[in-house]
Amino acid sequence: MGTTRRDILGAVGPRLRELRRRRGTTLAELAEETGINESTLSRLEGGTRKPTLEMLLPLAEVYAVPLDELVGAPRTGDPRIHLEPVTRDGMTYVPLSRPGGVRANKLLIPARPGTEPEMKTHEGFEWVYVLAGRLRLLLGDQRVVLKAGEAAEFDTHIPHWLGPDDERTVELLVLFGCQGERAHLEARPAWPGRRTT
Description:
Layout: H1 5-23, H2 27-34, H3 38-46, H4 53-63, H5 67-71, E1 86-88, E2 91-95, E3 103-109, E4 125-132, E5 134-139, E6 142-147, E7 151-155, E8 160-164, E9 170-176, H6 178-185
Antiparallel strand pairs: 1-2, 2-3, 3-9, 4-7, 4-9, 5-6, 5-8
Helix pairs in contact: 1-3
């Protein structure tokens, strides 16, 4: 039997709740970001309020997901991913996957002579593959240099820093979950089965 409109609408609430929990946002914070009152958001997540386009559009924007993904509509049409680079702290992230689960990004890190490495920690687990250039990875007390074709994976609870090992821009393929992406981009929110805080 096919999925009915009622089934699709009934699944929106749990999907909204899961997106909010994954992002680590309270109903009050979400109400402030979207302009939708907290009570309405609660009823939407609980399934007692039917979603309207006026409600779903700001939610899709806040969660950085396409509207059809928010309502669970089957994906049709163009399978290409529309690349919209984001620049943060001098680094450029190019999304290579759609939102949800483990995210793939191309990361370009230019050389910044005279800049001291700033070690950071956050939730999650990361995997990096060097596409071009030489990557210097500081991980706790370790210093590792990777060249094109080499990969590394690490728990991001360990203080870490990534950057070029010389004057050239280093290009990476990076996989991380929503917590890791949020920590890097401060925009929207680890590997399945990995420990998180």
